[in-house]
Amino acid sequence: MRHNSTAPRNNAPRNNKLKPSSNLIMNGSVRVRVIRTLLAIQNGQSLSSVLDPLLNSLHDGDKGFAHALLLTTLRQWHALARLLDTLADNPIDEVEVRTTIQVGLVQLLYLEVADHAAIHETVEAAKEIEFAHSTGLVNAILRKVAKNPSKFRKKCDKKHSLPNWLAYQLKQDWSEQYDELTQGLRQPAPMFLRVNSSVTSVEDYQNALYGAEIDADIVELTTGFKLLNASESSAATTLSTKGIRLHQSTAVNALPEFALGTASVQDMHAQLAAPIINQALMAKLSADDTESGSDSVEKEIHILDACAAPGGKLAHWLEITSANDESSLFHVKQDDAETSPTTANANVKVTAIDNEAPRIERIRENLQRLNLSQHDLQQAENSIALNIVCADATRWQHGKNKKAATNEPVFDAILLDSPCTATGVIRRHPDISILRTEEDIEQTALLQADILHNLWPQLKAGGYLLYVTCSILKQENVEQMQDFITHHNDAVAIEFTEDCSWGIEQAIGHQCLPIDSESGDGFYYALLHKTAE
Question: Which stretch of DSSP H or E encloses residue 332?
């Protein structure tokens, strides 16, 4: 799941002199603007809501430094706070002063800014935010660190940079991977691209990148699992997912034909969702044909993407669905000289829901760029009916507001990109470690359970539900699935096999951890099959 606004956040008011809504964020020196942005985040605003306004307020020559200063400070936030407590003779309670000093420490320890510049400009920043009384303290602490930066860098890097409650929970959940995991969360995440398979191949797009002097590697992940057929016996299935990893992060406007929808920015582990649920859907349709004794030329297929914003997984699924290859719902088998259609002429309906109007608009914008809007899909050779709905997934019922609503199961497959604490994407959204609280885990788990209980009855017998989060906390993942199956006799967990080249096997599903600096984010996947009761 993306950094989702539906997940609980720490919005408790802070005793800050500068409120997050203040226009002062856009004024002052680069360091002052970064400090004020950090104060806004501590007051509950997300990085995604304040980053663009910050960068847009700066001259081009200052944007790179401001971005590095802000993101690095956030990534090292909790470690810097602990270091600061050891450097001060007395506790520093004013959050503005603490934030200013931490910005200064980042310049000295991580960004290699010249000592005199880092100290002088940070002291001046303290004056500019009207905390001149703290300049002596700011100056003294930064000068102390500047005398032996390697010593203090080692102290800062020695332990994790997470809130203690989160570090404790990760220790409980991932004791063997704990040290590597907590250090990995402090690092920037690699940039991955998903290539639109209905437009070009991964290999051809890699060549286009080389032509634009952008170095990139092809990453291939294999997924093995045992899907159930019409007789409820399992059959091993293996599929391959290819994406592109850039050697260096690149502005999207520099990517070849990005505006034309040829590629999208999407984490490699996030690119697993659409192929998995689509393969499960194809297995369901094949089982239906076997049970009926013939391939149906005319059939209605209805699929749901729940909690769909910002639309990356939805777009990927639509790309696969509309492509004329073996994974497409419109694929035509070749049998000697004759064609044998399986789902040609299928009536395919796709419903996508999310609970906030701005996020719905984001879905539409992303699909528009990819030529996957409702208009585009209707004009395509293989027409797909797309319905995007602003609704609460804990209560929404398909057809509820229609006179002919029957409340019968309607969906052949459901992709649930569930709300979560987003702890698996801290590398991309380091503000999460500030915004989340320990109480959020329980609240989010309850929200996930409500959504699951509401959507499951709307899935047809024989259908599949893919449960996805970008969390690395077991309470939101494998424990959620274990509890769900306990209370739903018609839910069967699909086994991922040893052919699966990604993630760590769990009692149910697979868990990816954001450890390797060249691999994807923390994602959890569980595939559920609905049996006839």
Answer: strand 332-335
CA atoms within 13 A on the CB side of 394: 9
149-170 tens-digit pLDDT: 999 999 999 989 999 999 999 9
Q: What is Dmax (Cα atoms) for the chain?
A: 86
Distances (CA, A) of 325 to 319, 333, 517: 11, 10, 33
Length of the chain: 533
Report the percentage of the chain scoring pLDDT > 70.
Answer: 87
Handedness of CA 379, 381, 383, 388 (dihedral sign): negative
Active site residue 470: yes
278: nearest Cα among 231, 243, 315, 235: 315
13: tokens are 């008011």
Residue 35, CA distances (Å) to 42, 43, 108, 113, 123 in order? 11, 12, 16, 17, 12
Query: Tokens standing for 347?
Result: 């009536």
pLDDT at 77: 98
In this prediction the pTM is 0.91
Report how far residue 518's alpha carbon sits from residue 504's, in angstroms, rounded to the nearest whole number: 17
Provide Rg for the chain, Cα atoms. Answer: 25
> What is the signed CA dihedral for 327, 332, 335, 336, rounded to 10 degrees?
-110
Instruction: With CA atoms as reference, report the closest residue to 142 among 88, 95, 68.
Output: 88
Burial track 309-323 (b if 16+ CB lie within 10 A, e otherwise): bbbbbbbbbbbbbbb
d(CA 130, CA 424): 37
Q: What is the pLDDT of residues 235-251, one digit of tens each?
A: 888 999 999 999 999 99
Residue whose pair of structure tokens reads 């939805």 in the numeric block? 314
Catalytic residue from among 420, 470, 500, 512 = 470
Residue 129: CA atoms inside 13 Å, Cβ hemisphere, count?
A: 35
Report the SS3 class of residue 406.
Answer: coil
Residue 436 tokens read as 């989340």
Q: How far is C-alpha 138 from the geometric centre of its chain's CA atoms?
A: 37
